């Protein structure tokens, strides 16, 4: 043994750590700065230069530049809208076969029922468009006119059976709260297309019928572990979409500008003292609010829209807070460079009185969706704007509570549900996936939520497995660590 090897063998632990202190420091530094170095060293994206956030995105030329996501809170009934099951007429009031349910779990709302009677849809279905897609043309006559633009997915499925974890799963890729939502991921990765408006805006529409409203909390548009500046900015209905964005009476813009400049210097001093990244988030929020003082009033004012706009969206678009008004505002937002618009419409939780509630819900959205698609087409924006419609899960074929041929209710059902995409590279006039005769189990081409997210990100030019954020020592991503795939059959 030479003298060097002998020294290494006999050295104490204290000597070892003293000798390796620089190496350990370099290792820690490389962990802290690894993402920044990696982004600088990454190959430039084939689609163009690095985004303002420097992530090298998009990874390839995208089909979609922006997203309008219409989330129907509560879980729309797929067999009453998009998943036609004519054979169920013969099963009226017969029990769901155990061979179909096969021991699948139930919610506490129906687990105590003595039987599970089949409730066939009371609504009229027909084939629409050149594609001949079966849909509820009785309640959705306007959407039947643009059905050839829709990519209908009948085989979505999830593990979540209750609203809170199910909505969180759909919006963030995880049933537990605290993760970034889709809009935050895209704001972080792709950046903004307009410095005077947020990259990610949230709109909550007010349903006409309010029998069963689900809670919608701001955690659904949280940035989670991503920098706070990427959280969704919630716009309210009415003449003041953003509270306190305007200067107080008697405070001119130049005074406000000097005030913000001074506040920025104080915040920068605080950041140098404690290094809290939320301090920079606060700076960015103040600056964005200042720029929004001029952009938001013009955006929110729809008075100058021509009559032809209301012929498209319906007269309800004149009423702030209605879904039609929200759809119109969504067009105005993406037209001005907003990257991601998240719309929520409540009261799709049809545990009872489908005859009274579903027509009102469909009337709220039907013409407005037609108007949005048609409007984007006329402006040359449809092909690069991805529109998504759907809820957090589906409904059961069996009735919850009392059953008659004219009315019934349906419980939550995670095993299969329907969503659709339009524009932005989605394959219009397509139906993907099949369910069994009871719309209870998927029999062909299942699509998990992770697959849906991966496909959506693909349309935006992002390889989901490569788009990560280091958090708690892990490379976190929207699609998680479990297997997920891009469903290429949904791509135009």
Please, could you describe this protein's structure?
The protein has 13 helices and 17 strands. The protein has helices spanning 3-10, 13-19, 21-41, 78-81, 98-101, 163-172, 182-190, 253-274, 277-300, 307-313, 323-335, 354-378, 449-459; strands at residues 66-72, 126-128, 133-135, 150-157, 200-205, 233-235, 340-345, 385-390, 394-399, 410-413, 417-422, 430-432, 434-435, 442-444, 447-448, 469-471, 474-476. Strands 1, 4, 5, 6, 7, 8, 11, 12 and 15 form a nine-stranded mixed beta sheet that branches. By secondary structure, the chain is an alpha/beta fold. 34% of the residues lie in helices and 15% in strands. The termini are far apart. The chain folds into two domains: 3-41, no CATH class; 66-245 and 299-490, Alkaline Phosphatase, subunit A (3-Layer(aba) Sandwich), CATH 3.40.720. Strand 2 and strand 3 (133-135) form a beta hairpin. The longest helix is centred in the C-terminal third of the chain and has 25 residues, at 354-378.
């Amino acid at each position: 043994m030479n003298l060097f090897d002998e020294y290494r063998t006999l050295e104490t632990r204290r000597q070892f750590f003293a000798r390796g202190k620089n190496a350990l420091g370099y290792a820690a530094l490389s962990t802290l700065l690894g993402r920044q170095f990696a982004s600088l060293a990454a190959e430039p994206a084939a689609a163009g230069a690095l985004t303002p956030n420097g992530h090298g995105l998009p990874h390839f030329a995208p089909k979609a530049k922006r997203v309008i996501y219409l989330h129907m809170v509560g879980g729309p009934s797929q067999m009453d809208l998009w998943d036609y099951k004519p054979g169920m007429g013969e099963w009226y009031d017969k029990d769901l076969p155990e061979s179909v349910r096969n021991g699948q779990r139930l919610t506490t709302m129906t687990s105590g029922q003595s039987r599970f009677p089949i409730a066939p849809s009371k609504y009229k279905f027909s084939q629409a468009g050149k594609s001949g897609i079966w849909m509820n043309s009785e309640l959705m006559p306007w959407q039947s006119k643009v059905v050839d633009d829709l990519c209908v997915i009948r085989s979505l499925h999830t593990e979540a059976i209750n609203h809170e974890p199910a909505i969180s799963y759909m919006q963030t890729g995880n049933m537990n709260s605290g993760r970034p939502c889709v809009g935050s991921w895209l704001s972080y990765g792709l950046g903004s297309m307009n410095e005077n408006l947020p990259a990610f805006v949230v709109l909550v529409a007010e349903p006409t019928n309010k029998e069963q409203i689900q809670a919608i909390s701001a955690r659904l548009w949280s940035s989670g572990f991503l920098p706070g500046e990427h959280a969704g900015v919630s716009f309210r209905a009415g003449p003041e979409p953003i509270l306190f964005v305007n200067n107080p009476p008697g405070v001119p813009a130049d005074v406000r500008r000097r005030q913000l400049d001074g506040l920025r210097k104080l915040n920068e001093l605080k950041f140098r003292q404690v290094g809290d990244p939320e301090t920079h988030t606060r700076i960015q929020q103040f600056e964005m609010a200042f720029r929004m003082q001029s952009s938001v009033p013009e955006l929110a004012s729809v008075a100058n829209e021509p009559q032809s706009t209301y012929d498209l969206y319906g007269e309800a678009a004149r009423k702030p807070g209605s879904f039609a008004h929200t759809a119109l505002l969504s067009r105005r937002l993406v037209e001005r460079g907003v990257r991601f618009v998240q719309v929520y419409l409540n009261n799709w939780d049809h545990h009872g009185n489908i005859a009274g509630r579903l027509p009102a819900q469909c009337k709220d959205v039907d013409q407005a969706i037609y108007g949005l698609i048609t409007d984007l087409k006329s402006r040359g924006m449809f092909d690069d704007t991805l529109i998504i419609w759907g809820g957090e899960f589906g409904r059961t074929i069996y009735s919850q509570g009392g059953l008659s041929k004219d009315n019934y209710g349906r419980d939550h059902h995670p095993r299969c549900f329907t969503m659709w995409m339009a524009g932005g590279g989605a394959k219009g006039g397509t139906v993907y996936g099949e369910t069994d005769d009871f719309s209870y189990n998927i029999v062909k081409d299942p699509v998990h939520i992770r697959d849906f997210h991966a496909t959506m990100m693909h349309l935006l030019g992002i390889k989901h497995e490569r788009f990560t954020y280091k958090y708690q020592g892990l490379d976190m991503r929207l699609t998680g660590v479990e297997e997920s795939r891009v469903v290429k059959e949904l791509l135009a």
